């Protein structure tokens, strides 16, 4: 048995749930294993940053079991609403839970996969992930983490040497297997499945497990109380997530109930986009023809998903108690929204009334002016203290217009949250770090056409520099 050192703390807690929550599966055997990305920053938090590349590939490309961890990967079972239509034929179709361990803060974390082969839930899929899909997920998670969003971490990406056929990108295309580090892979759809199958004993067991494992709440003997406690905890977590992705200018694209986990951690990135300008109707997925998951409708979408979790608990807890928790969601969202936007602007809060009035005017101007979303937050980080910086911005003419005068006055009335942020290398430049679709496609074209990873690696460094400045 290999000794991974004192900082590796395995804890396959999932096994304590017993039968009924997943299926043992085997990883695919890939013809090649070319290591393209290893996130040593994330690996350090779980004591695995010291691994050689060879051992890294053995664990995260060939999926040899980590010591004292899950002996066999588990494809998790779940259902879910997809674009408001219930689908009982879901589950981990190209991924599995590979391992669990404690991080440096004693949080239980999962290592899960994407593109690791077929499972009982693959349906007609090949269980694979395109290399482009893996690259896109790294870019999304790195950008969101830098912007302060609670997100899964792209842990590893290994190119696997197969040629895949896909309908939504040029084919054949290169293949990969991704490993992500997450606080939980339990989704709203995990609970929906048990309710749908009337497996109430297992549902209560999962509720108790979730309370204790992810929220540090000791469950009682009262199953109704436990269900309400969990619903309240998930409600707060999802409200905070919603606020943070809006302030980041992010559009997830597919906010189905199988894509919302209970810890309020963003994950599973498909057709995502970042806003060019503040446009409530901006959508990410080409197939979202009605704009169900448009930028401005994301709060409504996540709240609707939360209602489905409440529905899954309806045979356990009283209807009026569930409804009361769900109706209170907006009371959690409002202060989180205020905090998230002020944090993005680098401003100290004053009081709720003044903060709301200023942010409403500021965001209204953002919509009307069609100013580049990221650049405005960059130019005015810290408020009035950045007025000289803003005068050197590519948007300086826009800031001189009468429509911005009251916004500028409002910014001058705020104190910076952290003055030293402006002394960082990130704020010494003139252009904000963004992640718009044209740049994503450009980064991919360098990889696809010339196997040139230099621009991708340079972008990751720029994103992390921004993240250090915004801490």
From TrEMBL:
<comment type="similarity">
    <text>Belongs to the SELO family.</text>
</comment>
<dbReference type="InterPro" id="IPR003846">
    <property type="entry name" value="SelO"/>
</dbReference>
<keyword id="KW-0547">Nucleotide-binding</keyword>
<keyword id="KW-0479">Metal-binding</keyword>
<keyword id="KW-0808">Transferase</keyword>
<dbReference type="GO" id="GO:0070733">
    <property type="term" value="F:AMPylase activity"/>
</dbReference>
<dbReference type="GO" id="GO:0005524">
    <property type="term" value="F:ATP binding"/>
</dbReference>
<protein>
    <submittedName>
        <fullName>YdiU family protein</fullName>
    </submittedName>
</protein>
<keyword id="KW-0548">Nucleotidyltransferase</keyword>
<keyword id="KW-0067">ATP-binding</keyword>
<dbReference type="GO" id="GO:0046872">
    <property type="term" value="F:metal ion binding"/>
</dbReference>
<keyword id="KW-0460">Magnesium</keyword>
<dbReference type="Pfam" id="PF02696">
    <property type="entry name" value="SelO"/>
</dbReference>
């Amino acid at each position: 048995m290999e000794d991974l050192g004192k900082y590796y703390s395995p804890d396959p807690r999932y096994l304590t749930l017993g039968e009924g929550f997943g299926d043992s599966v085997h990883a695919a055997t890939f013809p090649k294993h070319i290591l393209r990305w290893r996130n040593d920053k994330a690996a350090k938090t779980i004591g695995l940053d010291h691994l050689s590349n060879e051992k890294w590939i053995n664990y995260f490309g060939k999926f040899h079991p980590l010591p004292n961890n899950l002996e066999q990967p588990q494809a998790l079972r779940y259902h879910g609403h997809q674009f408001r239509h219930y689908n009982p034929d879901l589950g981990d179709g190209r991924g599995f839970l590979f391992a669990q361990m404690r991080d440096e803060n004693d949080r239980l974390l999962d290592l899960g996969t994407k593109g690791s082969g077929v499972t009982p839930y693959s349906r007609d899929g090949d269980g694979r992930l395109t290399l482009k899909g893996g690259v896109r997920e790294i870019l999304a998670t790195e950008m969101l983490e830098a912007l302060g969003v609670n997100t899964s971490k792209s842990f590893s990406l290994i190119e696997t040497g197969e040629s895949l056929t896909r309908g939504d990108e040029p084919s054949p295309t290169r293949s990969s297997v991704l490993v992500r580090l997450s606080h939980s892979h339990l989704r709203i759809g995990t609970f929906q499945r048990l309710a749908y199958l009337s497996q109430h004993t297992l549902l209560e067991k999962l509720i108790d497990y979730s309370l204790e494992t992810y929220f540090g709440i000791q469950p009682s003997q009262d199953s109704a109380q436990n269900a309400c406690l969990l619903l309240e905890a998930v409600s707060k977590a999802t409200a905070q997530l919603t606020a943070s992705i809006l302030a980041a200018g992010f559009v997830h694209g597919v906010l189905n109930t199988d894509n919302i986990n209970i810890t309020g951690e963003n994950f599973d990135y498909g057709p995502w986009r970042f806003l060019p300008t503040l446009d409530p109707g901006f959508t990410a997925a080409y197939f979202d023809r009605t704009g169900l998951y448009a930028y401005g409708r994301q709060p409504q979408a996540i709240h609707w998903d939360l209602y489905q979790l409440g529905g899954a608990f309806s045979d356990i807890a009283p209807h009026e108690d569930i409804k009361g928790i769900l109706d209170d969601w907006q009371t959690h969202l409002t202060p989180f929204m205020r905090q998230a936007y002020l944090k993005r602007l680098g401003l100290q809060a004053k009081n709720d009334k003044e903060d709301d009035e200023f942010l409403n005017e500021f965001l209204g101007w953002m919509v009307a002016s069609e100013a580049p979303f990221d650049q405005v937050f960059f130019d005015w980080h810290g408020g009035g203290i950045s007025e000289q910086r803003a005068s050197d911005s590519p948007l300086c003419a826009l800031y001189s217009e009468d429509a911005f005068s009251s916004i500028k006055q409002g910014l001058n009335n705020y104190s910076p949250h952290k003055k030293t942020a402006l002394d960082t290398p990130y704020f010494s430049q003139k252009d904000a770090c963004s992640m718009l679709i044209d740049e994503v496609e450009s980064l991919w074209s360098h990889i696809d056409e010339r196997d040139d990873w230099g621009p991708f690696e340079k972008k990751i460094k720029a994103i992390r520099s921004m993240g250090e400045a915004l801490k």
